[in-house]
Amino acid sequence: MSDYRGIAALFEDRVNGVEYYETRATMKLKHQFLSILENESKQLLFLIGEPGSGKTMFLHRIPSIVPASFEVVQFQTPFFEPKDFLDYLFRHKGVAKGEGSIEEQIQQIVTLYQERPTLITVDEAQLLSKEMLELLRILADTKAFWLLLAMHRHESQEILKEAQFRSRPHRVLELGPLEEDEVHEYISKELLRASLYSIQEQFSRSLARLIYTFAKGNFRDTKKLLNRLFLLLDYAVKNEKEGFTRVNRCLITMAAIDAALLKV
What we know:
By secondary structure, the chain is an alpha/beta fold.
């Protein structure tokens, strides 16, 4: 009997403890990102995408993506004030704290970091305060850093309209959804990687297409639907529900409802 609850765990939405899956959109983004680092001057970079598109996972992988010469400083949550942000940059370099005004501390930070290519990343940057956005703009103007701000696509449109960003060099990188035929490829690779050959054979291209229809290519929603699907299979097998012990359209539809991807 297959361990459907264990299989469901393969598709849990988390960054740590899961094998990284590089989507076509992520591969395209990586090539664009590395090309900018190699060929352009230091500037603000905006990584945008729909919630669940995989921005956080991409940020998590950046230290292994950029050249070894780069120093990467990552902020996973945006809930900090300018002073806290600067204090962290000082501590990252082994300095207890900066001295003087904010302006003087910025110059000290520049001196500490300017000798080595440095990339600062901030996740969920749409939640940053106006004061923090202004500080990041000032830091970008020093040309001492690359700054990569990841944010939801909708909120990014408002932030990028601000004069301090519109009038300065910046690049916008967008992480798109899974392609329709890629869903079948993703499911197959994940199951085969876990040596689940008989389970992988249950997913026809038409069933994968149905999953794509419900999740609309969103990577997080695709994983959520698959997680719910295998939990339903676990329940059906343990409770001897005939007709629901293999992957089928009905179970996928039920999983979509359970994952709040289909309203009834």
